[in-house]
């Protein structure tokens, strides 16, 4: 397994992940818990950020100098499930812009198909926070990273709720420089590509489309 993996371990996160795994958790609760976890993933992914500038301000008491972030990352959602994470990550990074990649694995041609790609202008050199709740086979996320690198973006960090061991191995085989932030690494995927024990199809559970 690649070395650029941060597994965030915390009792509150284990508790929330347990609710996501439960098939009886309704769609609204699934969305809200996904948002809560996504904020923490964004927090961890930005822990080492060092692009800051000093700004002179006045508090109610005195003049002082504070720090403000500059050159923020671009938050990219892999449609459609990534949209369940997007608003939460942007709430942590309100000065960030957002991009969207529509991509899926076609079971008939056994390859990924891109149907939508929209990025902010001037993303060359920009750090990317790539959001997708699940990394199972990793076919779609590898294809998404391939496309982003065509635009010569900067460092790419993947934010996901859970990922498979085999998916992460494949991701880091093709993109060893990419960092992954997740809550858990699952040992198995089943014959149709779902994580085991997993939490089902995140898109369906987020948007009630099953």
Automatic annotation (TrEMBL):
GO term, biological process aspect, one: uracil salvage
Catalytic activity: UMP + diphosphate = 5-phospho-alpha-D-ribose 1-diphosphate + uracil
Any GO molecular function: GTP binding
Annotated ranges, domain Phosphoribosyltransferase: 8-209
InterPro entries, sorted: PRTase-like (IPR029057), PRTase_dom (IPR000836), UPRT (IPR005765), UPRTase/APRTase (IPR050054)
GO cellular component: cytoplasm
Annotated keywords: Allosteric enzyme, Glycosyltransferase, GTP-binding, Nucleotide-binding, Transferase
Pathway connected to this protein: Pyrimidine metabolism; UMP biosynthesis via salvage pathway; UMP from uracil: step 1/1
Required cofactor names: Mg(2+)
Record-linked Gene3D superfamilies: 3.40.50.2020
Name this protein carries in UniProt: Uracil phosphoribosyltransferase
Organism: Bacteriovorax stolpii (Bdellovibrio stolpii)
């Amino acid at each position: 397994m690649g070395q650029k993996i941060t597994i965030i371990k915390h009792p509150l996160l284990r508790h929330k992940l347990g609710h996501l795994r439960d098939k009886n958790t309704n769609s609204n609760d699934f969305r809200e818990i996904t948002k809560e976890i996504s904020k923490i993933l964004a927090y961890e992914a930005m822990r080492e950020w060092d692009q800051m500038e000093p700004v002179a301000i006045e508090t109610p008491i005195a003049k002082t100098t504070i720090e403000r972030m500059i050159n923020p990352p671009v938050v990219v959602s892999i449609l459609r499930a990534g949209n369940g994470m997007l608003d939460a990550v942007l709430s942590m990074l309100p000065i960030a812009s957002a991009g969207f990649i529509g991509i899926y694995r076609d079971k008939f041609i056994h390859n990924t198909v891109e149907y939508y790609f929209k990025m902010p202008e001037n993303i060359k050199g920009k750090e990317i926070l790539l959001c997708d709740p699940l990394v199972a086979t990793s076919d779609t996320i590898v294809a998404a990273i391939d496309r982003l690198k065509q635009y010569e973006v900067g460092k790419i960090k993947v934010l996901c709720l859970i990922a498979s061991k085999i998916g992460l191995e494949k991701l880091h085989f093709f993109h060893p420089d990419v960092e992954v932030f997740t809550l858990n690494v699952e040992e198995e995927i089943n014959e149709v590509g779902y994580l085991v024990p997993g939490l089902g199809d995140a898109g369906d559970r987020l948007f009630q489309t099953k």
